[in-house]
Structures are given as structure tokens and as C-alpha cells.
Amino acid sequence: MRRVANRDGGALAGLFERHAPVTLGLLQRILGARGEAEEVLQEVFLQIWMQADRYDGARSTPRGWILMLARSRALDRLRRRESARRREEIVGEEGGEMVSPLGTERLESLEVKRQVSSALGALSPDQRHCIELAFFEGLTHTQIAERLAAPLGTVKSRILLGMNKLRQALSAHA
Amino acid sequence: MSTPHTPRIEELLPAYALGALDGDDLHELEAHWVSGCEECRRQLALWQGDLEALAAEVEPVQPSDITRARVLRLAGPGVVSPPQMSVHVRPTWLGIAAALLLLALALWGLLGQARMERQVRGLEAERERLSQQVNALDRQVGLARDEARRAQQALQVLAAPGVQSVVLAGLGPSPAAKGRTYVNPSTRDALFYAFDLPALPADKTYELWLIAAGKPVAAGTFDVDPRGTGTVRVERVTDASQIQAWAVTIEPRGGVPQPTGAMVLKG
To answer: Which of B160, B157, B164 is nearest to B245 (CA)?
Structure first.
């Protein structure tokens, strides 16, 4: 990441080859439409190219930083899309393969994936669903309660307990 | 004015990291953060790490060639160009002139790229600033909507024809405490207000119960503010005519499915 900050084009290319597939997977999971996800992917890597000096290795891994940048941009776009009251009808584009929520296919880092899969297995379906709605759709407690027609307190508890279970399971595998 | 770092604040952090916190919870955490809190920052980084692992769980998708080409164009010419054929030719004046021309073009391209990068950086900063403004406004609108929705929901219960109200009296450790429930029989939404209850240790919470068919049913947990006031909104309670009583007990934080602690209000 330091090399990218020093305008090393080769380093950016390496970063793209290593992290773009999972980043695009995340963007497509959030945005649905393949074309829009690719567009945001370009924005993310432009931001990385321009702001790599803001990366703090003590706080996250390069992949974690890139994924959180991508999530933030995708959720911004999702909110703008919703606040515009769905002016554009989002349709699946030709060739755009939808990814399953938290799928279980092969990933570059199989070990990390195995740990996360195992950690997610520790969550109840309700807890997992609430966390997915917050993480991938950017919904708040209140919005999740409305979406699920569940009491607000229940949603809060599910997220809190789910996140704690996730932490425990990830720690156990670390 | 910032508030102290308590276990309650720590409970809010996972949802904050997720971006799910809203309403009073968000106000509470923001009030705590007015002066910045190192412990919160440390814990948030840990939650962020968990979420990064969650993000990496998705199925990878290969970017299109167009996206790859656009991104790698940033990296500069030659970074992803295919390997050149190695052809040994004797230099000629024409070749040297062509090489100089190519060099000049490359320099011109680099200067243009630098200029474009400056423009992009400026636009990016402007976009970021506007995006932050939009987010701040969105958040304000969201909070105002939350407030309005809560007020509307409370009004719908309190002003409903035939609203049923029950007074809860203080028991045992809190004889001076009082409570009141309001149930809208048509929507079956209920509101509960508690008054003059003492604050609890960080690992405890108050839990509201309704008793129907002789069995307690959990109706939500709550904490009280410094004045001893707390509130719970319950959606779709059981048929109001079947509710035999309401009660409040002290339970472990997070609540329990069946009451285990001391009863402090009943009515």
C-alpha cells in the first residue's frame, strides 16, 4: 500500500489483481446490478490511487480497508438510489451473475473464509439475517424492525448477540 | 457535554460499527463521543475487523476486461501491456528519430496525466465534501423522521378510542416507583412508562412483562434516565382483554425469556 501511495503503478495493478474479485463480489452483493458494481469498483480503485497515503496498517489489512471503502461507497449509492425513490429501475444485466448472500464458494483466502463461515454458523438464522440487512443493505435498527415486522428491541438484541457470537467465534479460530 | 464510558455504551458499539444505530441510541453514543473516547475508538477498530472478515465472505466475481483496463490505465502505460517481441535491429537515423518522437509523446502523455490527476484529485475532494454534507443532512432527516415517527406512534396509542390503561405500583426495593401502560385495542400496540425507578448496575436491566393465561411474556427491556424515567413500546401485544397484569423485574442485561429477578412494579 505504501508503494501505491508513492505512485507505483505496478503496485496498484498488483492490488487490483489480488483484491478486485472479492471487492466486486461485495459490491454486487450490495448493489445487485453488475454494471453499477463495476462502476463503483473503478471509483474505489481511483480513490485508493489518490488516497493510499490515508491507509493505516495498524488499523486494518489492505483487503479490509479496500472492502470497507467499497462498502461505504456502495451504501452511499444505495441510499441515494432509494432517496431518489428508485428513479431508475435496477435490473440484472446480461452476464451479471448474482452472488448468494455470504456464499460458500472458494475464496482466495480459504483459511479466512473457513473461519468466517464457521463463525457465521454460530449465529441463529434470525441473528444472521439482521446483521446481513445492516451490513449489506445499510439498514438501521428501526428500518430492520419495519422490514421484518419485528419489535425494535428484538432486532437490537439479535444484532448485539449476533455480533458478540461472531466475535467469539472469530476469536476462537484466530 | 460528554457522558462516561459505561457497559451500556459498549453495547451500542457493534451496531454503530454496522451502521445500524439510530434514534435515541445514536444520540446517546454521540453524546458520549463529544470529547472523543479512546476506548470506544479501540473497540470500534476491533468490531471493524470482524466486519472486514464478514465482507470477505462474499463470493468473488472477476471484473470485466473494461473495468480492469480502466483501473490499470491509472497505473500508467506499460504496466499491463503484453510482453514485447524481442527483435534486435540495428539503429538507424530513422529509428532514432522515431524513438525521440515516441519519447516526446510519452513525456507529453505523462504531463497530461499529471494534470488530469490533479483535476481528478480536486474533483474527488469536492465530491467527498459534498458527500459528507449529504450524509450529515440525511442523518438529520433520519433523526427527525425517527422522532416524528415515535411521536406519531405514541399519539396513535394514547389518542385511540377505547385505549386501555393500567397503573403499576412500586414493590419491594422501589416502593415509590410508578408505571403506566396504554394499549390500543384495535392495533394492539402498547406504550409503557416507568417513573422514579433507580438506575441499575451496568450488568442489569429492567424488563417489562405482560401476564396472559397465567404466563409471563417478555415485552421488552429498558433503562431509566437520570430522573428515573423509562419507556417501552410494544408492538402487537396479545389481545388486550387477555392481559391479566403487567410487571417489571430486574434482570441480567440483554433480558431473559422468563423472569428471574426481583419484581419492582406490578399492576
So the answer is: B164
Phi-psi region of A123 (alpha: psi -120 to 50; beta: other; left: phi over 0): beta
pLDDT in tens, B44-90: 888 888 888 788 778 889 998 888 888 888 766 655 433 333 444 45
Residues of A in Cβ contact (< 8 Å) with B15: 134, 141, 156, 159-160, 163
Q: pLDDT digits over A155-172, tens only? A: 999 999 999 988 888 777
Decide if A151 touches B, using CB distance below 8 A. yes
Three-class SS state of B208: strand
Kindly report the pTM of this predicted structure.
0.52
| CATH number for the domain that contains residue B191 | 2.60.40
Residue B118 lies in a domain: yes
Architecture of the domain made up of A1-87 = Orthogonal Bundle (1.10)
CATH of domain A107-174: 1.10.10.10
Domain count, chain B: 3
Size of interface A-B (CB pairs under 8 A): 201
CB contact under 8 A, B20 and A161: no
Query: Mind telling me how many Å the CA of A134 is from chain B's nearest CA?
Result: 6
- Residue pair B206/B232 in contact (Cβ under 8 Å)? The answer is no
